[in-house]
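hey so i finaly got around to running the thing on Nidogen 1 from Hucho hucho. pasting the sequence first so u can double check i didnt mess up the copy paste, my clipboard has been acting weird all day
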Amino acid sequence: MDLHQRGWLGWSTLFVIALSVNSLSKRDMFDYGEQAGDQLLEQGTDRTQEVLLNQSMFFFDGEYTTVYINTNGFLAVEEPKVESEYLGKMPASFGMIAALLGDLDNSDGVGKVYYRQDSRPSVLLRTTDHISQAFPQDDEIKPTHALIITWENVAAHGAPGRGDGLDRKRNTFQLVVASMASASYAILLYPREGLQYISTPVAGQSEPVHAGFSQGLLQAWFSWSSSQGPYYRITTDDEASVRQLSEETNSGRRGVWVYEIGTFPFFSSITPGQVTNLSPAEGVAVGQTPEPGLPPTVHPVHYQPRYPVPSYPEPLQPSYPETVQTSYPETVQTSYPETVQTTYPETVQTSYPEPVQPAQPQPPRYQPQTPQVVLDVDDDLDVDVFAYNSETCASNRQKCSSFADCKDYTNGYCCHCRPGFYGNGKDCVAEGKPQRMNGKVKGRVFVGNSPSPLEFSNNDLHSYVVANDGRAYVAISTIPAGLGPSLQPLSSLGGVIGWAFALEQPGYENGFSVIGGVFSRQAEVTFLPGNERLTIKQEFKGIDEHDHLVVSTELEGRVPEVPSDSTVQIDPYKEIYQYGSNLITSSSSRDYTVSLPDGSVQTKTYQWRQTITYQSCPNDEAVRAVQPTQQLSVDQIFVMYDSGNQLIRYAMSNKIGSIHSGPPEQNPCFTGRHGCDTNAACRPGEGIQFTCECSTGFTGDGRQCYDIDECRETPEICDSHAICNNQPGTFRCECVDGFQFASDGETCVEVDRPIDHCQSGTNNCDIPERALCSYTGASAYVCSCLSGFVGDGYTCQDIDECEQGRCHRDAVCYNSQGSFTCQCRPGFHGDGLQCAPGSPELEKKQCERDRESIQVSSNTGSFSFFHPRPAVSQYVPTCDQHGAYEPTQCHGSIGQCWCVDGNGQEIPNTRTGAGQRPLCIDQGVIPPPIGPTTRPDVSPVAPGTHLLFAQSGKIEHIPLDGYSMNKGEAKALLYLPDRVAIAVAYDCVEKMVYWTDITGPSISKASLEGGDIISLVTTDLESPEGLAIDYLARLMFWTDSMKDRIEVAKLDGSQRRVLFDTDLVNPRPIVADPSYGRLYWADWNRDGPKIEMSNMDGTDRTVLVKDDLGLPNGLTYDPESQQLCWADAGTRKVQCMDPNGRNRRTIVEGIQYPFAIVSHGRNLYYTDWRREAVVAVDRTTDRETDEFLPQKRSRVYGIATTPTQCPQAYNYCSNNGGCSHLCLPRRGSFTCRCPDAVDGSCVERNL
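ok and heres what it spat out for the 3d tokens, dont ask me to read them lol
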């Protein structure tokens, strides 16, 4: 088996496996049976068991402590009626969860119904996993109780058979109800082999089994009649919908369905899981596309597949006027297929009339509760953070944010953020866009009763907040081990960003909306009962050029000691903020729990008060009203100190709203449970309706937002002497060298400043191989010849050391450019500078023998008193200290160099011009993993973006001039004789090129700036064909098409871990999206090609594309446009789509045999085996624009680009994320994982 094909012996087996890829099997269900502690339901055809729950279950708007389990595939919340009243009749007239409702039978002893209540951590963790995967935006999932019911091998009652029961079809399925303090979820599992029949005999007819939820009959208000309450049908009366139960999903796992079935104290509707992740060819209904130009309207039952179908019956007897009925506006209904629309019966819509929900009384005037805190502001506290003056906008426009407008008033000017942005005008940020904060921390802190303080300075602080749901993350580095554990209770040390960008409730504003990003904060913390005090001073300096909020922090005082290896849990708390003129004060009391290493627990408290001072614009004649008192609610608080990396982390969820208690807001925009992209703003509508709108600088439907490249779409957006750099959501103009911004902040004007001609390469010294340029200040420099050359520095000539008699009289002298070599004559041995009679004990190598034969032939027939030397025009091989051929050979007389193999034979197409030396690989040994050490004889690759591509025996590079290939400057970067490099990848941080070799096999790297080749992975490989680099987390991922697996390791090849080794046949290309922690790969299995996606930690594996694929050899991901593109040698197409498998389109078709592909800006570049070329494709015009034909015509393999700078992104694995070994990113977080070879000290955890 080679790279192009696999053995035919396994094809038939693989075809069978492909039919069941990702299907749920019985072994994937929750553990059941007597060994799991289950109880058995009595055998029969219609048996019911009453179960008293250990914890309440929420179902629709009710709370239940007793449930009823029935043979016929359902769980009821009241005593079930007789079979004839519910079989074949969905919805039922009583409260029911129908897992698979039908006339079922377990009386033959083969079928069984198991049930149990379970609160073990392993079971709850698994329920959490299913629910979290189905609701990825919901981070409040913490089940405390599970009810597990398993129907195993139950038959259809009355179905024909032989009588012994062995030939009867049987179904196996499972229902898990997971409950927590305020909600319950239903998890339904349907293994593929567990659904052998889809209907049962009912009243002499065959009726499909049903799945769904029914609240039963409800008593109408002010009448004696009852009507059907709300219900939710997972299946319809069509048998095809039943078959889909094991084939489809709403939780990201085929055959697994998750629903939120009840919430307390308010309930809106049954909510299905949001993750279908299946292509349209597999039967998933896709939402209708909104009209162009209009933001999509979002309905709370989003992302629903064709099955389930929520539906509500027509009212039996409408008893209310239309003015009372609740309905959704047409804009909501038209955003989704009709099968997803929800309607309510009129009698149900009015289940909460005015008598039940009285009008909210006016809240009483707020009175501070004891204990009262008196705020005393330091007299020396600087309030004048920045100042407006009486000047006008004409001369001060540049002082406003670039996203603000300047307005003149009677006494001066003010800055106001434009629509779509918020802030104080001096600093404005886009609504919905995540925000980052960077800064430094210093301090002098006493710990416990220690008489000496711990001092530190210049420590890094990084914070990140998801603005549209209020989640904030803070990390502070290099905190001493003696202090780190004791700082864990102080979550608000960096939590001020949580207040600044808290999720806003109706009528309330977060801190940044009110005061912007320039302010001072001083906080006093008093710990009880020891009365230790700590002062925190912070200066917020506004938004920098990278769009980050900048802060400096100082700590002074004493904190109670928290012993090493202790953990801290902080309870949710509320903090009252009182707003005055340029002054904000707040206070709160916070409880926290310390779990000590010995297992004991301590509960402690501290009091917190703070003062925030800022400068508003005094000239605004229409100052907007700000709520004088607001309440910050903080929960889901996580703290951790990583002693190994001396890193402390805080995480919390923040909301800003009213100080008065009342019904919580149900609109997802105010709860944070909306599913909008992290770069989108949630726009509330009526009731629980909302829309997602991409932040300014992004485009998309709000669910998925993509950065707009202003630099590419508007080339003239910057000055003609400026460079435009695109950034997420915005862009930056930077004046080129020799220019600087004028007072308007936009125009670039020329400046007179010194130029280092040595560094810029604009000097007139001889070439760097012969001369040295030395910068002497201003714009001056001095040229001098290198050792071994003579001249004035502008022109340098080689010194012939052989004419100077530098070698021993019994040695031969070989001159070379800038150097020379001495070799003892035959019959003598030594280093050439000293030679002694006799022969060395070691046998001479081929290189030595060849060199001596040239020496002897050059002296035949003549005698010379001088040292023998070859003729001037004769080439003499150069040998290393062991007598082997040096990998680089040069001819001193003509000045040319080339690479040779282990036998001294020249490698074709490696010969260079005068004064240059190629980078050749040593054929004798694989270099040890050290270095890279810069080699002075290797010219580094010129700055700029290049294409790197692999051919058999070498890696070449093509400089890019914009998007055009500079073919005249293309040349070999690295020679790898007798080797086949397949995949090529690039690390933009260390400027290293990585490649896989299938002849070794191995994975290696080398520097673009010259240096040794470093072998990284050389064992347990067979055919590594794909390679991806995560420049943020410092990881590499690769595919092995012979071992059928995907692996991850550190960039040095250590800590290897297999991510996937199942459902893979011919995996080849793999690409990484470091900013979102995602992997994408393609499997060119001829019986079932596919493109898949997962998180970098191996979770959430999903098939993105399965239809219309042939041989997807090449794959690339463009982080700018967020497009996933591939080249298919089977369909002969290049196609692109978004990362979620939508908006698929063909770029070019009719191509020949593509192997690899890479993106750069608007272009795609792919390698083609048949054309033996690198081909450029313009995505904006959907056509090929250029091709490059290498000098050596052979198959071309992997291709990569060398960007001049790394894309900006948040690094969740900064400082390795505090992990002991592997830190593997995933969307919005990371996971600590162990390598496959564990040393015993590894700790795995999810964060």
